[in-house]
Specification:
The complex is a heterodimer of chains A (151) and B (83). Chain A has 151 residues and is of the alpha+beta class. Chain A has 4 helices and 10 strands. Chain A has helices at residues 11-19, 55-70, 101-118, 138-150, and strands at 2-5, 27-34, 38-39, 42-43, 46-51, 75-81, 83-85, 90-98, 121-126, 131-133. In chain A, helix 2 runs antiparallel to helix 3 (101-118) and helix 3 packs across helix 4 (138-150). The longest helix of chain A has 18 residues, at 101-118. A 5-stranded mixed beta sheet of chain B has the order 2-1-5-3-4. Classes of the chains: A alpha+beta (151), B alpha+beta (83).
C-alpha cells in the first residue's frame, strides 16, 4: 500500500494496521526516515518536501511492485510525507511483512534505497540564514545500484 | 504540450508549469530543452550545468534522445532527494 500525505504519521499505528487480523505473518521489518537537525555544519530549522503529483504515486507503485516480485511479501507499506516539516518529525515509513525475516529485511532495505533514487521528491532545507535545495548524494545511487546487480 | 518544472528549476525558470506548442522539428527531449532555453533565460542558465537537469515524459524518466509529441506532459527537475 502507498500513501502520500502532508500530516505526520504514527509508526506504531501504521505497523499495527499492517498485521491486524493476520496470523500468517512471521516477520515485519520497517524503516523510518526523520528530519535531521544537523546538515554538515548547518542547523536546519525546517525542511520542505516538494514532489511531482501523479508521477510520485506511479513510481512508488512501481517500486513496491518490484519488491513484491523479488521477495515473497505478505504485506508492504510506503508512507511518504510532503510539505513543510520540522526536525525530529517523520518523513517516510517503509514496512514489509513476510513469513521469515530475511525477505522482510531485504525488501525493506531495497524499498528505501530505490525510493531515494527513483521517487520524484526534492528537499528544501531552511536554516536561520537561507533556504537551499538539498543535492543528490552519489552514495544513494550506489546503494540503489547494488540491488540492480543482485537481481 | 504541458511543461512542468520542479525544485530549483521551478524557481530559476520562474514558473511551475506552462503550455507550449513547439515547432514540428522539435521531436526529442534534448531538442525541446534547447527550444525552451531560447524562450526562458532561467532555464538556459539551469541547462548550463551539464548532467544536472533530469526529464520525465508522461511521468516516466526520459533521456535526451527520447521522443516528445504534442499533448505530452514533459517535466524537468534536478536529481531526486526524497526518502
Amino acid at each position: 500500500m502507498i500513501r502520500l500525505q502532508e500530516a505526520p504519521f504514527d509508526v506504531g499505528a501504521e505497523l499495527a494496521a499492517l498485521t491486524r487480523g493476520r496470523s500468517d505473518i512471521g516477520a515485519v521489518a520497517s524503516f523510518q526516515g526523520l528530519v535531521r537537525e544537523v546538515a554538515g555544519d548547518q542547523t536546519i530549522t525546517a525542511m520542505t518536501l516538494e514532489h511531482y503529483p501523479g508521477m510520485t504515486e506511479k513510481k512508488l507503485a512501481e517500486i513496491e511492485a518490484e519488491a513484491n516480485a523479488r521477495w515473497p511479501l505478505q504485506a508492504s507499506l510506503i508512507v511518504h510525507r510532503y510539505g513543510r516539516m520540522l526536525p525530529g518529525e517523520p518523513i517516510v515509513l517503509v514496512a514489509t511483512a513476510s513469513p521469515h525475516r530475511t525477505a522482510a529485511l531485504e525488501a525493506c532495505a531495497f524499498l528505501i534505497d530505490w525510493l531515494k533514487t527513483k521517487a520524484p521528491f526534492w528537499k528544501l532545507e531552511e536554516t536561520a540564514a537561507e533556504s537551499r535545495w538539498v543535492e543528490a548524494r552519489s552514495s544513494d545511487d550506489l546503494a540503489a545500484a547494488c540491488w540492480r546487480e543482485r537481481a | 504540450m504541458r511543461i512542468l518544472y520542479f525544485a530549483w528549476l521551478r524557481t530559476k525558470t520562474g514558473t511551475p508549469s506552462e503550455q507550449v506548442s513547439p515547432p514540428a522539428e522539435v521531436t526529442t527531449v534534448g531538442e525541446l530543452m534547447q527550444w525552451l532555453a531560447g524562450r526562458r533565460p532561467g532555464f538556459a542558465e539551469a541547462l548550463a550545468a551539464p548532467g544536472v537537469v533530469r526529464a520525465a515524459v508522461n511521468q516516466d524518466y526520459a533521456e535526451l534522445g527520447d521522443p516528445v509529441r504534442p499533448g505530452d506532459e514533459v517535466a524537468f527537475f534536478p536529481p531526486v532527494t526524497g526518502g
